[in-house]
Amino acid sequence: MDYKTHIMRAINYIENNLKNNIKLSDCARVSGYSDYHFIRVFKEATGLTPADYMRKRRLTEIIKRMRQDVPISETAFEYGFNSKENFTRAFISEHHILPTEYKKALNSLKLYEAISFAIQPFEVLPELTYLKTFDVIAYMSDEACPPNFWNKYNSRKWSKKLSGGKVCEDYGISAWNESENKLDYFIGIRKNNVLGNTDGTVELSIPGGLYAVFTTPRTSHYDFVNTIHRTWDYINNKWLQNSGYRRKSGYEFELYVEESRTYSEKIYIPLEG
What three-state secondary structure class fits 2? Predict the structure, then answer.
């Protein structure tokens, strides 16, 4: 029996007891490992500690209930948070916005469904297109993780702040910063759509040329952010390695309209030639 089988036993136990007090020792016992060995193997298999996994799963289930107009305090208590304040702190730590901001905007969040080790085939074939140079007015991310900056941008209606109230396509733009050895990330709208307040923004010029355009598979609200991540993983680790094309340095970008609720976006990768 391999280690994933042991860990799946613990995951199934956790999933069946998310509303109960789960002891680490019980998870370890179900998996067949000692407490110490269980923690180490669980993190190696999932990338998370057991405590992190339980917290993320409980928050995910609460968020699903929030979309059904169930009172936040009632649901949080049901999933083991002994006060609304404790839940709010956990929510902010995970998503970097207030629960009330999310409930008002119902923007897409990175959620965590039950882990499965089954390998699911995934492929997204791109279209190739030539773009002309265009300009974007954007906010620069102050978050280490782009989904957290999207949470702020969408829940606080920054797109309409820029556009003067219109619904516009939003551009999530990334570029590697060589001097600081980090990824710079920006979100904004095309300059020709800007009619509102631009305080705190920068202007980016997106070069024209050949782009591969990937359309993420349409999915649910709950799995949208994860599907975007799977698409990026496919682009970086499969398509680019086997396509015969070379990635061109510069801006790559995502294109989506949050209010469309289509839960599918386009990803543009600049190519040489």
Answer: coil
Residues 31, 6 contacting (CB under 8 angstroms): yes
Question: Among the CATH numbers 1.10.10.60, 3.40.50.720, 3.40.1350.10, 1.10.8.60, which is that of 3-105?
Answer: 1.10.10.60
Residue 140: strand pairing partners: 186
Query: How many contiguous H segments (helices) and E segments (strands) does the chain have?
Result: 11, 8
Amino acid at 108: S
CA 242/CA 232 separation, integer angstroms: 15
Q: What is the pTM of this model?
A: 0.86
Whether 105 contacts 155, CB under 8 Å: yes
Range(s) within the chain of domains with CATH label 1.10.10.60: 3-105
The answer to whether 187 and 141 have CB atoms below 8 angstroms apart is: yes
Backbone angles phi, psi at 205, to 5 degrees: -105, 115
Q: What is the pLDDT of residues 20-70, one digit of tens each?
A: 999 999 999 999 999 999 999 999 999 999 999 999 999 999 998 887 877
Model confidence over 183-227: pLDDT tens digits? 999 999 999 999 999 999 999 999 999 999 999 999 988 899 999
